[in-house]
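Here is the promised in-class demo. Please do not try to memorize the tokens; focus on the logic of going from shape to residues.
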């Protein structure tokens, strides 16, 4: 089954979000549990979340992805910001408890000059403190483009975090790949996709990959810019995007579009990609 969706606003409620996704032909989706540029969360609307969960099951949705706000930086030099990151992380996982069996994705953060060693220890500390082995949500660390002092620009950096986390949490930790981020970080997804996936498997393990942000890129490989482009409108082109989504080691994943389109535009991209799924 081809699992394809996009980022959907939860501003009008979670059930409404599910209906929006279905209306554009999506069978998975991604959402922010709060303002992506802020920190405050909305009060939990448990009946709405329960109705949303039932809706996903009734319509056969693939696993969906909750996304942490961009303000969540667990490896900040500021203890207050690290505490805020843990609080947001805890609150979002509490929300995800009402839609069990899905994913929660976060950017590992920026160490802001203190270095990978110090910053990554703070990330591990948050995971070990907030997560529990019996939680119903799998937490995903996203591959990053490497701009500034971002952590997660290489498979080795993400592997270190996964390996240092409490072993009891291992079944609840995974990776979300992002095509734009990977390319911007220097990985070759065009002529060297097989080699890149072999490196990923050796370093992290392909079984850890649970979701994929499918985005074209406005910039060439190794640019470290993180500028998403619409499908077929960037350096991958439609052919490159289709090669990624049809790869036998990736095609089973839920693909999420984060392209600069509105709901209607995402519907057109989903329809286009459905036409090309299964091509090799």
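The designed amino acids, position by position:
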């Amino acid at each position: 089954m081809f699992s394809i969706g996009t980022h959907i606003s939860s501003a009008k409620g979670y059930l409404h979000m599910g209906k929006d996704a279905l209306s554009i032909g999506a069978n998975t989706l991604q959402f922010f549990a709060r303002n992506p540029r802020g920190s405050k969360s909305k009060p939990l609307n448990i009946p709405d979340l329960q109705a949303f969960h039932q809706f996903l099951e009734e319509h056969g949705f693939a696993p969906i992805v909750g996304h942490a706000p961009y303000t969540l930086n667990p490896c900040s030099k500021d203890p207050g910001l690290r505490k805020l990151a843990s609080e947001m992380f805890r609150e979002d996982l509490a929300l995800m408890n009402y839609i069990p069996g899905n994913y929660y994705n976060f950017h590992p953060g920026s160490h802001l000059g203190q270095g990978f060693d110090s910053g990554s220890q703070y990330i591990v500390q948050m995971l070990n403190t907030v997560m529990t082995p019996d939680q119903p949500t799998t937490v995903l660390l996203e591959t990053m483009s490497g701009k500034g002092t971002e952590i997660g620009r290489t498979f080795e950096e993400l592997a270190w975090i996964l390996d240092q986390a409490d072993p009891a949490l291992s079944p609840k930790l995974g990776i979300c790949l992002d095509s734009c981020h990977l390319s911007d970080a220097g990985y070759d997804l065009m002529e060297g996709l097989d080699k890149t996936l072999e490196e990923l498997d050796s370093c992290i393990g392909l079984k850890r990959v649970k979701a994929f942000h499918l985005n074209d890129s406005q910039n060439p490989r190794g640019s470290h810019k993180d500028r998403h482009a619409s499908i077929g409108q960037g350096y991958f082109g439609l052919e490159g995007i289709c090669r990624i989504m049809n790869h036998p080691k990736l095609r089973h994943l839920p693909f999420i579009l984060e392209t600069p389109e509105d709901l209607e535009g995402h519907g057109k991209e989903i329809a286009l990609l459905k036409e090309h799924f299964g091509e090799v």
